[in-house]
Each structure stands twice: as structure tokens, then as C-alpha cells.
């Protein structure tokens, strides 16, 4: 056994350098001088990992803005097909006029003209849109195009802040793996889809919530999840896997604190609008129920291939049933796995199940999964494979819309090609899901647990003993059913078991 002096001399750095664990990261590092050496110092000096990741996130976001230049200059305003052929479409400038912000209408209170009676977004997103309209300091006498451009630019600046918060929160969630945040900052789909819609607000709040949970601040986690749910519906799904994990670890008080915080925060945001403008408030929920099968879903492939429409009520019921079945399977996996899964793993699986079974998949929905993927499966090869599939879908939907709006010219991607793009999106997401399920069943294959960690993003769950489990686990593994005492670090062997140092 080495002496204390030897241990202090050869102690590994607290930060895990990705170039020592990931062959793709090592190969990519050749662009900046090669992998980190034995005596490299991490987390010191002005360029700490978090600062580097924040700067990279800003740079990639700016590249995404550059990609929208053809639309910003003219394509948003000169016909419909040009914004699709240049793959630079955004809802933001169109909804500035279409949802009454250009006319000074108040969301949820003032009725809109046309088919959409009220704003069809959750309350916190509506507030975000309203603040952006207040900051659009162009006179009403200016041309409409110029005002829409400024509105998009203001929103882009606000969404850039959300992107930086997102990347920084992911970098800080795993204390020993800050460089995993680089997966988020460099994600091609983040740059391409960040300014299509306002999803980054909810995504950033969700990432901040997971950071709070990893630090044991359970009430703050709940409050942020409640705020995120007030901006987009999907963040509430994270309370499901957390329930199963807290059940298995016996952390009922912590879970209750999180749920109460989430409910209180959601109510604080929604209750005033619910009471003062109930018709406008419920528009988001009625619109979600009444919406027909739309782009990106496997339901669309079915209707296009069969030529038979599916009633919206039937799709709603089938989607809910499929989601329930998948969530039950995820819960069963979490309760029967020999070693308790990590929170980020189950969070990714649940949100992916929602995306896969939903009747619509807008291209910006990929933002929901990017931070969860970086925390659940931080391997560059697998992450980039999935991102490649999402980029192909991003191009596929715009070229398909160009085909359908170009008249007799038929410029773009025909229906069969778009179905291939949808299939690529589905396959890429299922690929990551399969790898994460394998990591749960074989913790020795989990990149995060290869250094002996249990659940760095799990907060009170990290290293906690099991109180309820359907299968007996190895007595030396993290999350085992033994008394909660401080033990040695564990290393995962090739057989998928934990052996003490």
C-alpha cells in the first residue's frame, strides 16, 4: 500500500481531462497542441474550463447568427421558399407581427386577429417575448422589415445569454468533468437552432435546476424546474425519474422539497394570468391538444405512407399511452438495475421518450436533449453521431418545406426524402438511448463512472445507499443496500461490478 507521501506526490488532478479518456477529444486537441500532458494544470489561470466554455458558446452562437444572414437581409420578407432554401427560417420575426407585439398588444389579454385568438406560448415565454418587444427601440413609423430585424436581434442577444448560462451550468454540474460542457458549447445543432424559437429559455432554466440539484440545493432545483415548466412543458418530466431515484434512495424529504418548490414557482408565474386572462392563459394547452400531426414525428410518416389521416384525438390518446408505457419501462429499469442509475441518464431517457412519441418535432426541440446528453453520455463520438443525424434533419425539414412552397419548380426535398430525414432523427435519438441503457446495465461502460464516481449530478443521491430496490446489488457498489457510511472509492471492473480500492 503506498504511503501518504507517495499518494500526495502522485495524486491525480481533481479535474478529469477529456483528452485522457476520449479518443475523439484527444484527436481533436491536435488543433490546439495535442492532449494534456502529465503535469498539466487544470482550473488555474485566467482561462479556466468554465470561462473557455462560455467563450466557445458565445462564438458558436455568433456563427449561428451568421448562418441566418440571408434571411435577416431579405429572405424573411421576400416570399416563403427563400428562407427554406437558405435553411435560415426563424419564428421570431414572423411572430413579432403575427402575435401583435408590433402593434403593442398585451399577450393573453388582447385578442388577436385571424385564426390564432391568443398567444399560444406558456406564460414565462410570453413574458420573454414581451420584454424583447419593449427593448426593440425602433419607432412605429419605421418600416416593418426594419422593426422585425431589430426584434430578432434583441431576442438573439437575450437567447445568447441563455446559451451561455446553459453551457456554464452543464460545465459546473459534474465537478470533476467541467469539460463536458464543451459538448454543449460546440454542438452544431445548438448553433443552427438557437434562434428559431424561444426554447433556450426553458433549456437554460432546466440546466440551472440540475446544477442546483447536484449541489444539494433541492428547493432551488424545484423553483427553477417550476420556472422552466412555466416557459415550456417538458421540464416537469424530470420530476418523474427523480421520484424513482429518491424512492430507491429513501430521499423523500428532499424530493418533497423539490416538488413543492416547483409547484409554488409555477403558480407564482401562472396564477395572475390564470385569474386575469383565463382564455388567453389556457390557449397554450388547448392549442397543444388540438394541434394536428405535424412535421418531424413518426406519426407523419405513417399518414404519408398510408395516405390516411389519423384523428387528432386518436393521436393524443396513443401518444399518451406510448409515453406511459415507455416511462413505466424506464421506471422498471431504474428500480431493477443492479446499480442505481444516474439522474442525468434517466432524465435523458424520459425527455427522449416524450420527443419520440410526440405528434410534432420542431427542429429546435433538439435543444432540450443537448445538455442532458452531455451529462448522461459524455462521449464525443456518440454525441457527434447523434448531432450529425439532427443536422441532417435540420436541413431535411427546410428543404422539404422549400419543395412544398416552390410551386411547379419543386426545388428541395420531396416527401420520401423528408421521411428519410425523420428516420435519421429518430435513429440518432434511439442510438443514444440504447447506449445510455447499456451504461445503466453495465456501469463499467459509463464514462462518468469510470473514475469511481457514483452520480456527480445526483446531489443527495450521490453515493447514497439504497433503501428500496427490486434486485440485490453488489455490496461494495455505489447505491448499495448497506448502511450509509463513508467508504472507499469504487472502481468499475470489466464484469460490471464494483471492487473496492
UniProtKB/TrEMBL annotation:
Where it mainly occurs, coarsely classed, is membrane
The domain of life for this entry's organism is Bacteria
The membrane topology noted for this protein in its Swiss-Prot or TrEMBL record is: Multi-pass membrane protein
Cellular compartment(s) = Cell membrane
Composition bias type Low complexity, residue spans: 474-484
Recite the UniProt keywords alphabetically. Cell membrane, Membrane, Transferase, Transmembrane, Transmembrane helix
Q: Pfam families, per this entry?
A: GT87
Any transmembrane segments, and where? 48-66, 118-137, 149-170, 182-213, 219-246, 258-277, 318-336, 343-363, 383-405
What is the name attached to this protein's record?
A: Glycosyltransferase 87 family protein
Amino acid at each position: 500500500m503506498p504511503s501518504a507521501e507517495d499518494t500526495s506526490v502522485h495524486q491525480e488532478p481533481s479535474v478529469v481531462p477529456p483528452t485522457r479518456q476520449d479518443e475523439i477529444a484527444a484527436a481533436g486537441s491536435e488543433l490546439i497542441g495535442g492532449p494534456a500532458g502529465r503535469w498539466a494544470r487544470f482550473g488555474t489561470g485566467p482561462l479556466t474550463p468554465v470561462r473557455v466554455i462560455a467563450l466557445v458558446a458565445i462564438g458558436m452562437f455568433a456563427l449561428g447568427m451568421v448562418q441566418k444572414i440571408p434571411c435577416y437581409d431579405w429572405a424573411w420578407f421576400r416570399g416563403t421558399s427563400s428562407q427554406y432554401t437558405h435553411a435560415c427560417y426563424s419564428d421570431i420575426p414572423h411572430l413579432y407581427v403575427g402575435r401583435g407585439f408590433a402593434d403593442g398588444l398585451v399577450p393573453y389579454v388582447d385578442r388577436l386577429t385571424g385564426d390564432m385568438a391568443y398567444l399560444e406560448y406558456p406564460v414565462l415565454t410570453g413574458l420573454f417575448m414581451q420584454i424583447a418587444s419593449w427593448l426593440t427601440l425602433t419607432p412605429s413609423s419605421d418600416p416593418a422589415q426594419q422593426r422585425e430585424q431589430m426584434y430578432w436581434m434583441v431576442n438573439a442577444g437575450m437567447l445568447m445569454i441563455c446559451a451561455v448560462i446553459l453551457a456554464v451550468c452543464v460545465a459546473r454540474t459534474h465537478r470533476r468533468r467541467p469539460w463536458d460542457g464543451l459538448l454543449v458549447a460546440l454542438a452544431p445543432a445548438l448553433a443552427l437552432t438557437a434562434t428559431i424559437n424561444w426554447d433556450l429559455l426553458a433549456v437554460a432554466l432546466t440546466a440551472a435546476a440540475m446544477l442546483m440539484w447536484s449541489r444539494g440545493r433541492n428547493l432551488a432545483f424545484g423553483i427553477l424546474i417550476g420556472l422552466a415548466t412555466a416557459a415550456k412543458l417538458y421540464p416537469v418530466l424530470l420530476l418523474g425519474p427523480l421520484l424513482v431515484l429518491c424512492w430507491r434512495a429513501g430521499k423523500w424529504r428532499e424530493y418533497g422539497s423539490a416538488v413543492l418548490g416547483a409547484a409554488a414557482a409555477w403558480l407564482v408565474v401562472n396564477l395572475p394570468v390564470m385569474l386575469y386572462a383565463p382564455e388567453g392563459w389556457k390557449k397554450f394547452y388547448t392549442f397543444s391538444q388540438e394541434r394536428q400531426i405535424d412535421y418531424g414525428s413518426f406519426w407523419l410518416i405513417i399518414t404519408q405512407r398510408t395516405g390516411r389521416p389519423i384523428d387528432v384525438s386518436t393521436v393524443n390518446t396513443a401518444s399518451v399511452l406510448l409515453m406511459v408505457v415507455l416511462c413505466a419501462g424506464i421506471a422498471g429499469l431504474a428500480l431493477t438495475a443492479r446499480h442505481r442509475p444516474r439522474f442525468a441518464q434517466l432524465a435523458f431517457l424520459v425527455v427522449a421518450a416524450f420527443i419520440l412519441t410526440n405528434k410534432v418535432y420542431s427542429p429546435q426541440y433538439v435543444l432540450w436533449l443537448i445538455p442532458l446528453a452531455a451529462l448522461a453520455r459524455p462521449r464525443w463520438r456518440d454525441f457527434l453521431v447523434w448531432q450529425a443525424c439532427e443536422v441532417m434533419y435540420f436541413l431535411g425539414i427546410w428543404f422539404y418545406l422549400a419543395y412544398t412552397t416552390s410551386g411547379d419548380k419543386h426545388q428541395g426535398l420531396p416527401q420520401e426524402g423528408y421521411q428519410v430525414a425523420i428516420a435519421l432523427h429518430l435513429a440518432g435519438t434511439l442510438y443514444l438511448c440504447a447506449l445510455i441503457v447499456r451504461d445503466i446495465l453495465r456501469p463499467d461502460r459509463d464514462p462518468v463512472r469510470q473514475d469511481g464516481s457514483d452520480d456527480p449530478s445526483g446531489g443527495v443521491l450521490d453515493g447514497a445507499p439504497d433503501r428500496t430496490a427490486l434486485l440485490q446489488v453488489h455490496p461494495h457498489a455505489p447505491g448499495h443496500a448497506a448502511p450509509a457510511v463513508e467508504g472507499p472509492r469504487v472502481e468499475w471492473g470489466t464484469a460490471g461490478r464494483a471492487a473496492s480500492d
